[in-house]
Design goal:
There is one protein chain. The chain is built from three helices and eleven strands; from the N terminus they run H-E-E-E-H-H-E-E-E-E-E-E-E-E. With about 190 residues, it is α+β, with helices and mostly antiparallel strands. Strands 1, 2, 3, 4, 5, 6, 7, 8, 9, 10 and 11 form an eleven-stranded mixed beta sheet that branches. Strand 1 and strand 2 form a beta hairpin. The longest helix is centred in the N-terminal third of the chain and has 17 residues. It starts with a helix and ends in a 7-residue tail after the last strand. The C terminus is likely disordered.
């Protein structure tokens, strides 16, 4: 499987979302975060984007959100139970498995995702984490988890000019497909 090509395509897709301001419709806004959506050009559903200003340095924000095994994300993100690197393809690309806990009194089963993840730093200091679903021979579907399939998704950490202690955080994500290992069906 061309993990590098898939990771770079996911990063390019995130760049397209970031550069194309058209068609986004606001759906939620607080004083800290705004969430918007637009119809997907690739599947029957919507693409979502969350944006906010974080009062911290790029380094501090990136350390909290970057997708690495043993990182702080599993501590602060209640939707991430575990994160592991299945295979390091290079220093910036890896195949990873993320698990989520059950929700709503176990009505929603625990999920697992296997993605190729690319981490990239741009010349202006912007950091990107982009990912998309892959299959990997060392990571077959596990019992007691529903396998989720991510479309390209990612997160930009963007330094604000003249404000070294504030960053713009922009996350784009898409719908997931689920495959139940027990039932062999998608939903």
């Amino acid at each position: 499987m061309d993990y590098v090509g898939l990771a770079e395509a996911a990063a390019e897709k995130m760049g397209l979302y970031r550069r194309d301001p058209g068609g986004w419709r606001g759906c939620r806004r607080t004083s800290e975060v705004s969430v918007s959506w637009r119809p997907s050009a690739e599947f029957a559903g919507n693409v979502y984007r969350g944006e906010g200003i974080v009062p911290a340095s790029t380094r501090d924000v990136w350390e909290c959100i970057k997708p690495v095994a043993g990182g702080p994300r599993t501590k602060w993100d209640q939707n991430v139970k575990d994160f592991e690197v299945v295979e390091a393809i290079s220093d910036t690309i890896s195949v990873c498995r993320t698990t989520t806990p059950a929700a709503f009194m176990r009505i929603i089963s625990p999920r697992e995702f296997v993605d190729v993840v690319l981490m990239k730093r741009y010349e202006d200091g912007t950091m990107l984490s982009a990912a998309t679903n892959v299959e990997h021979p060392l990571c077959p579907p596990q019992p007691n988890f529903v396998r989720g399939f991510n479309y390209p998704c990612g997160c930009f950490c963007i330094p604000l000019p003249g404000q070294i202690s504030h960053q713009r955080l922009e996350e784009s994500w898409r719908q997931h497909r689920w495959l139940s290992a027990e039932r062999g069906c998608t939903y």
